[in-house]
Design brief:
The protein is α/β, with parallel strands linked by helices. It is built from 10 helices and 8 strands.
């Protein structure tokens, strides 16, 4: 029986690609780095941001300079460009009405502020990031969320949009549900470890009934 659903954040619950791209380009303008196209940024969403920055700009002061300033810029810009998908709040509300616990487990270091800015904090009592633990596809962030939810892996599903998310679900030994709102289609998500796939979160409540 599934008692809890843990969600990835970017491109799963929210369309954040434009906001992330604009913020990275604000950082690039400050630091004299090359500007980035939305398409190349979108491909890296779900990675640890330090890895994405290195892929864009090579080796540099990522941890000491670029990442801290990026986070400051996003706060200064009030997380502009990060908005929930239309299906997110109705789907999560329905799950909670059925007594299913929900949480967020993201490859962001500290996702609480951006979850708040996106208007989702009241829906998710548990929000886990990777500060102090290993990034996905290591299972640590899912375990962190499940510990706070007080449920076992056998009672949980993880919903995400990427191959990294599905590998994380496999590594955590939870049911992996791939949603095609990101960069990947159904076949790719299945090859990456998804047990089930959906086209949007609107399909999730029914899918969980089928799984039961």
């Amino acid at each position: 029986m599934i008692r809890g659903v843990v969600f990835d954040f970017d491109l799963t619950l929210v369309d954040s690609a434009r906001g992330i791209c604009e913020n990275l380009n604000a950082l690039a303008a400050e630091k004299g780095l090359r500007s980035l196209a939305l398409a190349e940024v979108r491909k890296t969403i779900g990675w640890a941001l330090t890895d994405a920055m290195r892929s864009f700009w090579g080796n540099g002061p990522v941890d000491d300079e670029w990442l801290p300033r990026y986070r400051e810029l996003f706060e200064e810009r009030h997380y502009a460009g990060v908005v929930p998908f239309a299906e997110t709040i109705p789907a999560v509300t329905l799950l909670k009405q059925r007594g299913i616990l929900v949480a967020i487990a993201s490859n962001r270091l500290s996702p609480a502020n951006i979850v708040q800015a996106a208007g989702l904090a009241s829906f998710f009592p548990v929000v886990a990031g990777i500060e102090g633990i290993n990034a996905k596809p290591a299972p640590d962030v899912i375990f962190k969320a499940l510990t706070e939810m007080k449920i076992r892996t056998s009672e949980a599903a993880y919903v995400g949009d990427s191959d990294i998310d599905m590998a994380t679900a496999v590594n955590a030994a939870v049911i992996g549900i791939g949603v095609t709102t990101g960069n990947f289609g159904r076949e790719f998500l299945v090859r990456s470890g998804a047990s089930y796939t959906i086209q949007s979160l609107a399909e999730l409540p029914h899918l969980l009934e089928v799984i039961e």
